[in-house]
Every structure is written in C-alpha cells, then in structure tokens.
Amino acid sequence: MLVFKPAGWLSQADGSGRGDVLEWARARVAAARPSPGRPFVGLCHRLDLPVGGVTALARTSKAAGRIAAQFRDRELKKVYLALVGGRPAKDEGVLAQKLARVFNKTVPVGPGRTPGAGGGEGGDRGGDARDAREGVLSYRLLETGRAGGRPASVLLVDLLTGFKHQIRAQLADASMPVWGDAFYGAEPGPPGESGIGLFAGFLTLRHPVSRRLMEFWAEPRGWPWSEFRADGEASGRPSKLAGLFPTPEGFRETGGPSGADEEAPDGAADASPNGAPPTGDDG
User: Staple partner for 180: which of 4, 6, 43, 189, CB 3.0–4.6 Å?
Assistant: First the structure.
C-alpha cells in the first residue's frame, strides 16, 4: 500500500496529537473493508515530519516484513528531490562521511571536526565518532531557477544509506541547506508552513508477493515547491522538474517474472491524507 504523505504529517503517532499517516491509513482500510477487529497496516519506513512524498505501508505482517527487509538490505531505490538555495559548486557529486546523532541532530564527525560543527537548533556540539555510521548519497543538479525571488536549485538525490536526517545534514554540511530547513541552518519558511524543500519523489521496490519490480512516484506540491520557477520558463521552455513525472502520481512495473514493463493508469499511487482522490494500490 503506497500513500502520499503530506509535509507536516507524522509517519507514526508520537502522542503530540498531530495527524499521522499510519492511523489515517488504518481508518481508510477499515472504512473500505469493514470487519471485526482493527485492520493491520504496517509502517515499512518513515519520512521526517517536514518531508512529503511517497510512503510504503503494508496490509499484512508478512508483507511488512518483506518490504522492511528490502529497506534494511538496501534492495530498493529511493530518489528524493531537494530544493536548495543558490547554485551547487558541482553539478553532481557523492557525499560520504561518518554521521552521528547528537541532541536530536545529525552531525558529521571525523578528523578536523570540533564541537559546534553543524550548528542549528538541535545542539551545538560535534558528534562522537565511536557511535558514527557511514552516510552516503549522490546528487545531480536537475534545474536552476528562483524561489521567493532568490536563486535556487533542484537536486535529484539518491539515498544510498539510511540515517535519520541524512540528506538534510549532508547537504547542509556541503553548503547546500534544504530550503526552509531552519533546523539545519537554512532561512525558515513563512509562518504556518510546515514543509521544507525535501520530497520523496520516487520509490522502487519489489512487490512482497509477486516479486515484480515496481516504481512509484509523486510530484512535489505545496510550499516551497509552489514558489519555484525554473530558469527559462518565462521564455516558454518546459520545466525539467515537471517533465520528470509521467502523471502527478502513479506507478509502473519495471520488471519481474514476466519480464514485461507495464505502466499503470494515472493515479495508481494510493490516496493521501491531504484529500487527494482515492486510487488503486499495490496490494
């Protein structure tokens, strides 16, 4: 079961009273298929509170375990879109460094790192290398433009390891903080906006039963994406960002036992807590 998680929603309830995707999905399943007891919906991975995008859930414990194993064993592919301020020094690159969690913040550690590295509001101290793990991602410049009247760039980010806040921390450390991510040193967004310029745009995994390889996608929406204008749009050139997505949201089979590639109809990703129209799911 694949759903669109809006920025500002939790992946799983934390007692704060905020909306969360897991309980929303359980309520939707219960309404669609009434039966005694509470329906099972399992969370296979999490997106940070201010991050929107494609989220994988499972309707059986066996499917949850199989999909979670794909995340754990890095058998699937996650591609994020990052809106950052200015222009990157290089059009593409790999960021690889040791990362540690310090006072609810992810910070790079290693030779030359001193207390205060990373900054922000999560604690101004360097990490402890003894507890650090390797964090690796690759990025590629997709498009340049402006957001809120300021220079901005859209990056495609391929997350090669899994670490809480990894993309946010590593891009900030590379002087490319995610737009609106005040926690990692960027200028905060306007009052009332809970999102940042990071979006889980693509997720490719194997169906837990058929083992077919499936790609799911969702197009970024809401602030700050609504403010981004690509260079050249004024002269009629199409945006590369908009051209990435065959439909606003959907999925397609990209390989499997049959070897056939089949694209699903528009709207094949599941519904969204923000009121997107209900659609099919991956079973």
Answer: 189
The CATH number of the structural domain formed by 2-263 is: 3.30.2350.10
Q: What does 1-25 look like in DSSP terms, one character per residue?
A: -EEEEPTT-BSS--SS---BHHHHH
In angstroms, the CA 57 to CA 36 distance is 21
Contact assessment for residue 201 and residue 217, using Cβ atoms and an 8 Å cutoff: yes
What is the model's pLDDT at position 4?
Answer: 87
CA distance 127 to 159: 21
- Average pLDDT score over residue span 91-97: 94
User: Is pLDDT of 283 > 60?
Assistant: no
| Extents of the domains making up the chain | 2-263
Angstrom distance (rounded) from CA 267 to CA 277:
8
Largest pairwise CA distance in the chain: 59
Separation CA 170–CA 192 (nearest Å): 26
pTM of the predicted structure, to 2 decimals: 0.81
Distance of alpha carbon 245 from alpha carbon 142, whole angstroms? 13
